[in-house]
Amino acid sequence: MPLFDYQCPECLTTFDELQRSFDDPAPACPKCESQESRRLVSRTAFILKGSGWALDGYGGGKSMDDALDMIDKIKPKIGRDRS
């Protein structure tokens, strides 16, 4: 089960909670029992290890410089209106 971080807007207590899914309702604050807790955006502990990922030239043995050049080429296209 994923572990989610929450903060209570009433007392500003930060806490974490194991929940079955992202769609489950926010839990009550453990300190003041407010039902207004908000899910926080938190870092993930997901790390890609081994060969074949972006840091070692993912995609057919291209060098890091080739990968960075490719990123520079697609950056202007990101965020354009797709209508």
Task: Walk me through this protein's architecture.
The protein is α+β, with helices and mostly antiparallel strands and 83 residues long. It folds into two domains: 1-40; 49-78, no CATH class. Helices cover 13% and strands 14% of the residues. The chain contains one helix and three strands. Strands 2-1-3 form a three-stranded antiparallel sheet, with no helix packed on it. Strand 1 (3-7) and strand 2 (14-18) form a beta hairpin. The longest helix has 11 residues, at 64-74. The chain is elongated, with a radius of gyration of 20 Å. The two termini are 38 Å apart.
Strand content: 5-15%
User: Which stretches are poorly predicted, pLDDT < 50 over at least 5 residues?
Assistant: none
Shape: elongated
Topology as a string of helices (H) and strands (E): EEEH
What is Rg? 20 Å
Q: Count of helices?
A: 1
> Quaternary arrangement of the chains shown?
single chain
Secondary-structure class: alpha+beta
> What number is the mean pLDDT?
78
Q: Kindly report how far apart the N and C termini lie.
A: 38 Å
Condensed summary:
This protein has 83 residues and is an alpha+beta fold. It has 1 helix and 3 strands; from the N terminus they run βββα.
Task: Name the descriptors.
83 residues, 3-stranded antiparallel β-sheet, single chain, 1 helix, alpha+beta
Helices and strands in order, then pairings?
Elements: E1 3-7, E2 14-18, E3 38-39, H1 64-74
Antiparallel strand pairs: 1-2, 1-3
